[in-house]
Write a structure and sequence with these properties.
One of its GO terms (molecular function) is kinase activity. By secondary structure, this protein is an alpha+beta fold. It folds into 3 domains: about 10-40 and about 55-105; about 145-205; about 210-365, Heat Shock Protein 90. It is built from 7 helices and 8 strands, in the order ααααβαββαββαβββ. The strands form 2 sheets. Strands 2-4-5-7-6 form a 5-stranded mixed sheet, with helices on one face. A 3-stranded antiparallel sheet has the order 1-3-8. β6 (about 345-350) and β7 (about 355-360) form a beta hairpin. α3 runs antiparallel to α4 (about 175-205).
């Protein structure tokens, strides 16, 4: 939005300093002249023979020019000193302004890193640096998301195109039934990825939870388990105590589905999935899902909640299928957790696998009827 030109902050501070000094000098002069008006009109001291003895008019004649000279001197001192002091005070803002202009051009790597002791300007600069850290991290995540999403959506279409080209090149040797089966599997994979993206978008688009209702985490996890039949080679053990929270039923269902699907998909033959719901000693309702599997690199764990990030060496068990997961399961979980103001704890299990725990704030916990 265009703005009319105005004085800089430095000039305004300078004029404020000078104006204060001039006002103080003028007030002093006014008080002095008022006092002199009450002096006797006659001579103030006895005059010696041939000497001079001042009266009130003589004092006023001398005081008025001196007061005007003093006011002018204070104005010069105020402007000069105010300009220097304002420059010194505003120097941290100049550093901050330079960093803001650099960030506005897209260079988010620049930081203020203002030296000196703690004060309002340093706290402002430190807060700006933290904001740039968050922005840089967010933009980096968005770049990775765009690249990974493009790859994930391109791969199944490229595979289908290759299969069709091979079948077209060898009409006599192609197996139509096998071709249709593989095309259907690849198409299902693309549809699953798109559905997961839409689900993630719906959750992230909401601002918190609108119209929260009582929801039992134990019941939600049981319904999700019934809908997702575990493979024969993966065992599921449950310990579900009632844990009722205020939340969005659809979003909590998505959380449960993705927690369970992630634990089933990224498992090993003969592995186990443990599901626990209840309340911790602090009174918070929680749901915990653990699974067996290969070791997960600790440095990769913080990024597992980003879209399309998969753990190295984590694959589906033979009983689940050969196609990899969409890579959006924990990202959807993190989005639901953020919408409900809950805490998400993701960490590797000793011996392999992953442990994911979602803890809801006490304010959203309801006592079971």
């Amino acid at each position: 939005m265009p703005r009319a030109p105005g004085l800089s902050v430095r000039w305004r501070l300078t004029l404020s300093y000078a104006g204060f000094l001039v006002a103080a000098g003028a007030l002093f002069s006014v008080v002095l002249l008022l006092l002199l008006r009450y002096a006797p009109t006659g001579r103030l001291v006895p005059a010696r023979p041939g000497g001079f003895a001042p009266d009130r008019h003589d004092l006023l004649a001398v005081a008025v020019p001196l007061c005007l000279l003093m006011i002018g001197f204070l104005a010069v001192v105020g402007l000069t000193g105010g300009w220097l002091l304002a420059g010194r005070v505003l120097r941290p803002l100049e550093l901050l302004g330079a960093a803001v202009r650099t960030a506005g051009q897209g260079w988010l790597w620049n930081r203020v890193r203002m030296p000196g002791r703690d004060d309002e300007f340093r706290r402002l600069a430190d807060g700006f640096d933290r904001m740039l850290d968050r922005l840089e991290s967010t933009f980096e995540e968005q770049r990775r998301f765009t690249a990974n999403a493009s790859h994930e959506l391109r791969t199944p279409h490229a595979v289908m195109k290759t299969m069709l080209q091979v079948a077209r090149a060898d009409p006599a040797g192609r197996d139509v039934d096998e071709l249709l089966r593989r095309l259907a599997e690849t198409n299902d994979r693309a549809i699953d990825t798109l559905e997961a993206l839409l689900q993630l978008s719906r959750v992230e688009r909401t601002d918190g939870v609108a119209g929260p209702r009582p929801c039992d985490l134990a019941l939600i996890m049981e319904e999700s388990l019934e809908a997702q039949v575990p493979p024969d080679r993966v065992r599921v053990e449950t310990s579900t105590d009632s844990a009722t929270v205020l939340g969005d039923r659809a979003q909590l269902g998505a959380l449960a589905d993705n927690l369970l699907r992630n634990a089933l998909v990224h498992n090993v033959s003969g592995g186990t999935v443990w599901i626990v719901t209840g309340r911790d000693p602090l009174g918070r309702s929680f749901v915990s899902v653990e699974n067996t599997g290969p070791d997960v690199p600790p440095d990769l764990v913080p990024r597992l909640t980003e879209p399309f990030v998969r753990g190295t060496g984590r694959t589906r068990s033979p009983g689940v299928g050969e196609a990899p997961g969409s890579g959006l399961g924990l990202a959807i979980v993190a989005a639901v957790v953020g919408a409900h103001g809950a805490d998400l704890d993701v960490r590797p299990r000793p011996g392999g696998g992953l442990r994911v725990v979602v803890r809801f704030p006490v304010r959203s916990v309801l006592q079971a009827p």
